[in-house]
Design brief:
76 residues; alpha+beta; Gyrase A, domain 2; 3 helices
């Protein structure tokens, strides 16, 4: 089971996450500074993959993406 607090920390913390939503198997995230995203930490937390393109970060987590995104939104 994914820990939303650990994922949020690996995304650079609440102050770095501008937007997050679940999309089928991915967390789609807009961040203020993509250099703060710890891809290795996300993978060690169970992410199947991480894609960074500018300020857009997608974290492949599987079918629980919606639930994780909602839990992270509650932390923001």
């Amino acid at each position: 089971m994914f820990n939303p607090q650990e994922i949020l920390a690996a995304l650079g913390g609440a102050e770095n996450v501008e937007e997050i939503e679940g999309c089928i198997t991915r967390l789609r995230t807009e961040v203020a500074d993509s250099s703060l995203v710890d891809q290795a930490a996300l993978k060690s937390l169970g992410a199947h993959g991480v894609m960074v393109s500018g300020s857009a970060v997608q974290v492949v987590v599987g079918p629980e993406a919606e639930t994780i995104a909602e839990d992270i939104q509650d932390l923001l």
